[in-house]
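REQUEST
  id: r-88c1
  op: predict_structure
  target: Response regulator transcription factor
  payload:
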Amino acid sequence: MTTPSTPHARESTERPIRVMVVDDHPMWRDAVARDLSESGFDVVATAGDGPGAVRRARAAVPDVLVLDLNLPGMPGVQVCKELVGSHPALRVLVLSASGEHADVLEAVKSGATGYLLKSASTQELTDAVRATAAGDPVFTPGLAGLVLGEYRRLASDPAPAASDEPKAPQLTERETEVLRLVAKGLSYKQIAERLVISHRTVQNHVQNTLGKLQLHNRVELVRYAIETGLDGA
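RESPONSE
  id: r-88c1
  status: 200
  body:
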């Protein structure tokens, strides 16, 4: 007689989240890598400069890049642009000492999924890495409102002159529904619960929508939703 598998048994077969840590301070970098390893993550690589981060990330293929902004050789935002541009499935969580608005917005515009200050606790960091791996935006409290405000400012900028380019492909009813909830700031988990679908299905709808609209990240997706009135504002 066989017994049904338990949740714990199912969890044990799942691949751990692959993480790479990039920071120019060796002691800090090693401490973060150690904390993540002890929390069950697979730390596949570390780097202490921008060019090395790009090179090693392409070789190690992490799920999440924990990235400092102030790096020798190449700034963190450029590292983010290069890697997200060539590896759309990569998620970037910026872990920085800077809470300057300009740094936060530049990181998000470069493709970062989240932004956490280095004052965060180990628990906050591990929770943020898991959320980032799932595609959910994560921000140190107080920064999320700043980013959403920037979405709206961008949407109010004059649109470029219309060209003879063909119209964007039509979204399905479900893709439009998911996009509307993304624009309202809901996480993928919350969207899945709201629509009674799986987290993976939500991710697939978002990826399909990005492809159809020829957009690259959540920032551009939310801007599109606001411009077309899908955010319900």
